[in-house]
């Protein structure tokens, strides 16, 4: 009974030491020295227990082996306590680290949340962008098709253009040739105009008389057409009845003779200088008016004369009706 009580006291003592260690403020640096003090205190208490035991040893016989075991047990307890302290400080340290990590985790979670939101926004934008891209691709394809069509059209147009350019070049060359010819033609025209302006203008037309019967006479007489209708160039002389060629050239002459005397001859010669060119005449056997006319183209030298001469024994007639007329003009100079 006595030894059991001693053992109980020892256990209580250990319990107290334990409690002291548990509640003690042990910092990392002085944990060793503090541990040493506690060891002394425990030593003291164990000695106190031993003294109490010694007092009762006379009655109870306890083997010294138990003390040795107790001592060993006490050392183990101390050792456990130190380890425990170390563990606690480790735990605290870990808890601090945990807090830091938790805060970081929270931050990270927030970040993740924020990133999720941003992600959703980005996904929405991405989706709309993808739609836009798809639409742009379609537009691009359409544009590409039009581009291709335009390019092929362009090629066709270029080919036509090139052929047109060739045509234009040819036309330009032809144009130059034509321009040269045109210019020379214009020069010719100008020259011809000058020549034309210089060319003599000759034309006349004259009626014989208003006096009625002329002739008959026994000899030829030159008919003097005194009623001048036209006399450009004044080559015809109404006083003499003679036309004189002002230039060398080809001339046209014509005349019409009228006769009104019954049972009589009517006729006249046309003379070129002294040469008879035609005799035109008729006989009035119907007791009415008769006529004769003719025309000649004559080549005349400058100064040549042309006139009508009344055929001997015949007569002509003229009055205000202008029945007997002599005309002529220059066809062209030579
Ligand atoms: C982390 O977030 C939880 C839940 O919102 C909160 O209870 C805790 O106090 C936060 N910790 C820190 C360190 O902010
Ligand atoms: C005859 O000629 C004159 C003068 O030119 C003219 O006035 C007249 O009307 C002419 N007579 C006839 C019938 O044509």
Walkthrough of the structure:
With 334 residues, the chain is of the alpha+beta class. It is 55% helix and 23% strand. It contains 3 helices and 13 strands. It has helices at 2-23, 31-56, 64-198; strands at 203-207, 212-214, 221-222, 227-232, 236-237, 242-244, 249-259, 265-272, 275-283, 290-300, 305-310, 316-318, 325-333. The strands form 3 sheets. Strands 3, 5, 6, 8, 9 and 11 form a 6-stranded antiparallel β-sheet that branches. Strands 4-1-13-7-10 form a 5-stranded antiparallel β-sheet, with no helix packed on it. Strand 5 and strand 6 form a beta hairpin. Helix 1 (2-23) packs antiparallel against helix 2. The protein starts with a helix and ends with a strand. Mean pLDDT is 86; it is low at 24-36. One 2-acetamido-2-deoxy-beta-D-glucopyranose (NAG) is lined by residues 207, 229, 320-322.
Oligomeric organization of the protein chains:
single chain
Helical run tally: 3
N-to-C CA distance: 188 Å
Q: How many β-strand stretches?
A: 13
Structural class: alpha+beta
Helix share bin: 40-55%
Q: What is the mean predicted local confidence, pLDDT?
A: 86
Largest sheet data:
6 strands, antiparallel
Shape: rod-shaped
Uncertain ranges? 24-36
- Give the C-alpha Rg: 81 Å
Enumerate the distinct ligands.
2-acetamido-2-deoxy-beta-D-glucopyranose
Share in β-strands: 15-25%
The run of helices and strands is HHHEEEEEEEEEEEEE
């Amino acid at each position: 009974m006595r030894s059991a009580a001693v053992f109980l006291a020892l256990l209580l003592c250990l319990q107290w030491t334990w409690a002291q260690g548990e509640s003690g403020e042990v910092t990392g640096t002085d944990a060793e020295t503090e541990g040493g003090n506690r060891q002394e205190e425990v030593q003291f208490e164990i000695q106190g227990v031993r003294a109490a035991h010694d007092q009762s040893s006379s009655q109870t016989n306890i083997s010294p082996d138990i003390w040795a075991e107790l001592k060993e047990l006490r050392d183990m307890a101390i050792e456990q306590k130190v380890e425990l302290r170390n563990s606690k400080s480790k735990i605290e340290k870990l808890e601090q680290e945990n807090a830091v990590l938790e805060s970081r985790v929270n931050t990270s979670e927030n970040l993740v949340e924020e990133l999720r939101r941003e992600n959703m926004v980005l996904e929405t934008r991405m989706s709309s962008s993808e739609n836009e891209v798809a639409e742009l691709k379609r537009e691009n394809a359409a544009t590409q098709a039009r581009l291709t069509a335009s390019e092929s059209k362009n090629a066709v147009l270029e080919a036509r253009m090139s052929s047109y350019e060739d045509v234009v070049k040819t036309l330009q060359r032809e144009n130059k040739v034509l321009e040269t010819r045109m210019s020379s033609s214009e020069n010719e025209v100008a020259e011809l105009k000058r020549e034309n302006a210089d060319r003599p203008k000759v034309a006349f037309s004259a009626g014989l008389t208003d006096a009625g019967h002329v002739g008959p006479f026994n000899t030829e007489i030159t008919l003097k057409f005194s009623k001048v209708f036209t006399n450009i160039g004044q080559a015809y002389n109404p006083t003499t009845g003679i036309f004189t060629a002002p230039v060398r050239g080809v001339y046209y002459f014509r005349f019409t003779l009228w006769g009104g005397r019954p049972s009589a001859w009517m006729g006249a010669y046309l003379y070129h200088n002294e040469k008879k060119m035609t005799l035109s005449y008729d006989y009035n056997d119907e007791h009415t008016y008769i006529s004769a006319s003719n025309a000649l183209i004559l080549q005349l030298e400058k100064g040549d004369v042309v006139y009508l001469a009344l055929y001997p024994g015949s007569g002509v007639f003229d009055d205000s009706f202008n029945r007997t007329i002599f005309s002529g003009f220059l066809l062209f100079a030579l």
